[in-house]
Amino acid sequence: MSASEWADLLVDPRGIRDFFTTSPDLDQCSLFYCHIDERNTSITLGFDTRLVPDALLRDDGDTKANAFEFFITFASVTDLHISGWGGSVKRSVRMSRSGRDGEISLSVESPTERISFQAQEARITRARTYLAS
């Protein structure tokens, strides 16, 4: 799977495909947010990129945008492992279909951190374009 094919694993890939012809490479995005919700056994990751979407979100009207922010929520998470969260600038993010019942595997790795887990599904839960300074 290529770095931009992760969107094919989403419940509804239109959440990204509506904005980009080719999905942004998660390795090239800034991972700035990680929320673990133990009540719903979900994890939400927030990514930011300076790639301008091919089609701007409708809510932005005439605003000139030079950045795109999106959140992926993973549901029914199992096998969560976390070692460090150091704010590393250079991270490797891998999202793929695992052999276990079609679950999604996600791993985030850098020299100072590692996060990995399995999830039943993933979806874009928020996306917006904005003007970054």
Content-based structural category = mainly beta
Number of distinct beta strands:
8
Helicity range: under 10%
**Rg, Å, rounded:** 15 Å
Shape: globular
Q: How are helices and strands ordered from N to C? A: HEEEEEEEE
Count of runs of 4 or more consecutive helical residues: 1
Report the span from N to C terminus. 34 Å
Largest sheet: 4 strands, antiparallel
Biggest sheet, spatial arrangement of strands: 1-2-3-8
Mean pLDDT, all residues: 86
Sheet-strand content, in percent, reads over 45%
Low-pLDDT regions: none
Draw up the topology in text.
Blueprint: H1 14-17, E1 30-37, E2 42-49, E3 67-75, E4 78-83, E5 92-97, E6 104-110, E7 113-119, E8 121-130
Antiparallel strand pairs: 1-2, 2-3, 3-8, 4-7, 5-6, 6-7
Provide key terms for this protein:
133 residues, mainly beta, four-stranded antiparallel beta sheet, 8 strands
Describe the structure.
There is one protein chain. It contains 1 helix and 8 strands; from the N terminus they run αββββββββ. The protein has a 4-stranded antiparallel β-sheet, with no helix packed on it. A 4-stranded antiparallel β-sheet has the order 4-7-6-5, with no helix packed on it. The model has no long low-confidence stretch (mean pLDDT 86). It is globular, with a radius of gyration of 15 Å. The chain starts with 13 loop residues before the first helix and ends with a strand. Strand 1 and strand 2 (42-49) form a beta hairpin. With 133 residues, the chain is mainly β.
